[in-house]
């Protein structure tokens, strides 16, 4: 690819050849990935054992600690074995792997080159079915009856509290650097959408370095607050979910960004 290095993250060693055929860099998470053809998150300085809590961010940590300086001057992107970037001007062909591969981003389109980052189209949490929130935490809804009637009150803070532990977001925000604390709090309280799936594309490794330098020390402080004795997916993966919200905030605040759609397709289906 001329101006883009795209890392495709997986937990399944059988995806190796398919990722290579697409033309992406295969990334393997966890101890079950044995092939040295993968870039693996469990070599050198790593937190691979925290994958159940961090998700794909165990690879980002590895990249931050071990290989960031070695990256060339191309754009740097991240996707997953079942989530991919789709340029606006392309139709997706799911008939076979070759056609699917040809539908995906392989280089940065010309109308994106003046930007510094690419993030996914937003996911609006206030459009989720009300029954989902009622089932998750009916007591919180009863304490705030306006939530039943005013969608704009169902902001990112409300959504995070409902899905990932009431009060946990406030505790995490309190551990942020003082330069980010108030702005991130405002972002979570005023916004009803975020850029999902922990996927992004950076123009330079220096942008990536700045993001990592802001994110990982915060998550390490959060570990001391929440620990790892966590039950249920919404709580156990709290570090990944915090990173997902922070990604939206950070790239919107600090970079000139442009949106791109993300599509769902598990390459195991081919």
Structural descriptors:
15% strand, seven-stranded mixed β-sheet, single chain, 12 helices, globular, 270 residues, alpha/beta, Spore Coat Polysaccharide Biosynthesis Protein SpsA, Chain A
Q: What is the C-alpha radius of gyration, as a whole number of Å?
A: 19 Å
Strand order of the largest sheet: 3-2-1-4-9-6-10
Q: How would the global form be characterised?
A: globular
* CATH architecture field: Alpha-Beta Complex
Give the helix tally: 12
Characterization of the model:
This protein has a single domain (about 5-120, about 195-270), classed as Spore Coat Polysaccharide Biosynthesis Protein SpsA, Chain A (Alpha-Beta Complex). The chain has helices at about 15-20, 50-55, 55-65, 95-105, 130-135, 140-145, 155-165, 170-175, 180-190, 205-225, 235, 240-255; strands at about 5-10, 25-30, 40, 75-80, 85, 115-120, 125, 195, 200, 255-260, 260-265. The model has no long low-confidence stretch (mean pLDDT about 95). The radius of gyration is 19 Å and the shape is globular. It starts with a strand and ends in a 6-residue tail after the last strand. The protein has a seven-stranded mixed β-sheet with strand order 3-2-1-4-9-6-10, with helices on both faces. It has a two-stranded antiparallel sheet with strand order 5-11. It is α/β, with parallel strands linked by helices and about 270 residues long. Strand 1 (about 5-10), helix 1 and strand 2 (about 25-30) form a beta-alpha-beta unit.
């Amino acid at each position: 690819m001329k101006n883009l290095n795209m890392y495709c993250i997986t937990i399944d060693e059988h995806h190796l050849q398919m990722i290579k055929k697409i033309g992406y860099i295969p990334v393997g998470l966890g101890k079950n990935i044995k092939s040295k053809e993968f870039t693996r998150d469990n070599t050198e300085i790593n937190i691979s054992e925290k994958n159940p809590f961090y998700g794909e961010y165990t690879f980002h940590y590895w990249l931050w600690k071990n290989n960031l300086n070695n990256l060339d001057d191309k754009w740097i992107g991240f996707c997953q074995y079942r989530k991919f970037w789709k340029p606006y001007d392309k139709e997706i062909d799911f008939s076979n792997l070759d056609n699917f591969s040809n539908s995906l981003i392989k280089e940065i389109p010309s109308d994106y080159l003046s930007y510094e980052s690419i993030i996914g189209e937003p996911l609006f949490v206030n459009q989720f079915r009300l029954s989902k929130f009622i089932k998750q935490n009916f007591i919180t809804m009863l304490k705030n009856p306006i939530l039943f009637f005013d969608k704009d009150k169902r902001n990112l803070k409300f959504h995070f509290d409902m899905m990932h532990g009431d009060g946990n977001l406030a505790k995490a925000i309190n551990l942020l650097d003082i330069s980010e604390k108030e702005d991130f709090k405002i972002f979570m309280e005023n916004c009803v959408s975020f850029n999902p799936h922990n996927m992004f594309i950076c123009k330079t490794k220096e942008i990536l370095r700045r993001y990592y330098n802001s994110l990982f020390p915060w998550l390490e402080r959060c570990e001391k607050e929440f620990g790892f004795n966590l039950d249920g997916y919404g709580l156990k993966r709290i570090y990944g979910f915090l990173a997902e919200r922070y990604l939206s905030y950070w790239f919107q605040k600090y970079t000139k960004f442009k949106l791109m759609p993300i599509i769902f397709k598990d390459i195991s289906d081919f």
